[in-house]
Amino acid sequence: MDRPYVMGVDVGGTNTVFGVVDARGVILESGKIKTGSYETAEAYLAVLAPELNKLIERAGGKEKFNGIGIGAPNGNYYKGTIEDAPNMVWAKGKVIPFAKMISYATGIPVALTNDANAAAIGEMTYGIAKGMKDFIMITLGTGVGSGIVVNGQLVYGHDGFAGELGHVVVRKENGRLCGCGRRGCLEAYTSATGVARTAKEFVEQGKVKTLLTELVPDVEKITSKDVYDAAVKGDSVAIDIFKYTGRLLGEAFADFIAFSSPEAIVLFGGLARSGEFIMQPIKEAMTEYSLGIFKGKTKILLSELPESDAAVLGASALAWEIK
Amino acid sequence: MDRPYVMGVDVGGTNTVFGVVDARGVILESGKIKTGSYETAEAYLAVLAPELNKLIERAGGKEKFNGIGIGAPNGNYYKGTIEDAPNMVWAKGKVIPFAKMISYATGIPVALTNDANAAAIGEMTYGIAKGMKDFIMITLGTGVGSGIVVNGQLVYGHDGFAGELGHVVVRKENGRLCGCGRRGCLEAYTSATGVARTAKEFVEQGKVKTLLTELVPDVEKITSKDVYDAAVKGDSVAIDIFKYTGRLLGEAFADFIAFSSPEAIVLFGGLARSGEFIMQPIKEAMTEYSLGIFKGKTKILLSELPESDAAVLGASALAWEIK
Q: All domains of chain B, ordered by start, with CATH?
């Protein structure tokens, strides 16, 4: 292969992780810097670019690279921009032409999209969705993200922002306030913070004794990890919290299936690793709420990419598509 | 052009309509037979095929045709089958290899999909969605159907049945029973029968005097057309019925936008012709419920294809895609 490598760059709210990846999905070299503390995109770039160029040199120079793929919050594929990403000082309320900036600094063509889309491309290229033409990636983390693949192509929509399934409204009446300012979004219930809110509600109702009050005396501090620990010990309240969360996901998935009838829904992130506590209610509700012709057809799969590498792999996969 | 014509066949619950169409979307010849009364698909075909062949001969023979496109309830694009279409005796509980049967009877290649998908391709080929790569077609009739176009291609999903947006669940709690057996589907509220049910509910609440009780003394018999007539005369209950229906559509559209971020949502069918009575609440609710980055971006358009021709045109458009 003329250009055997790609670079993947994952711009997260806290850290930026990057790595040199080969065609089999092996990360040959990697690095990391802090993302958030820079005042301007230029200041951030002044630290990031030398790090990227160092790895590029070590891999044999820019001629070895097919491209650089970037996953970033509010990343726009068509424009190569990061648009008003609220968690990063240098990108808040601004439109940053990030793809151009990185391309200029490295001499390598750049493709950019949001992090969940990058994850979907990663699964399709190196992961469990290899060979699938129709699937939906759902990332369950601090937020709930999604990347939708139809006919083997990522769905970007007319404006480059398609695939915001964390913000479909699953509770139309009296829904929880979401970080986006609206009410009842899937993310408000099924993100890590959503699960923590459910835990607080369930514990405060206090109908049943729960291990959670022993583990974390201050209800404000219960995390989804605590809920998992309590569930493993057989705590019925913790198990109910997962049931509640899983059923909401399953209901929402039934609607997603009515839209694009995917072969699989691939889950990624902390909550997805809660095993049958979450998987069983997801599957039950999905089957229960699916339209007859769709029942039992769509698989629920877990990403098999190692969590620490997935973001870099996903971003890097985008760079193979650069022609 | 070597093959200047296509044939469009629309298999409806009551009538089957068909026509010879040229590349500009002009219907040169057309015909019609009853769909429903035949016991077997073979008996139906024995009447339909000679009618099609008559038109084919008149147009200069099968060599003049690029293909035949068929829109049919529960039509599967990948398999060319009609699967368990409950409104047609000959297709109820059966899988009919309809594309093959028609191709065999006419000697012309056949493509088949469901009626709403055909409508979407019709709009993209001859109608208001010409040149659009991302849009959603919503047909508001006896049922609520949809055809979704992403990256210029129809979304068929992994099984050929994608795009059942009439069956996303818009009321998760205490939803109306839908014809599909589940509760709270969009179709149960925004189809013609859904609007009639809303009318019955609103009139029976009887808080305000309404023209509807004068126009149609038996509440069971109110149709969406009656509601329109009353709304035109300024009846506040009728106007509220449209507002209720439109807001439900707008809410649902906000979720569709979070999925595929289409350039436009194109409406077709009786209810869509109720003008501002329905359009204004749709637009208001859609904007209100849309995620910030999507607000004000997606157009709501009305199909401009004449209702009587749209089904044949839509089906015929599918036949241009046959290679």
A: 5-125+308-320 (3.30.420.40), 135-303 (3.30.420.40)
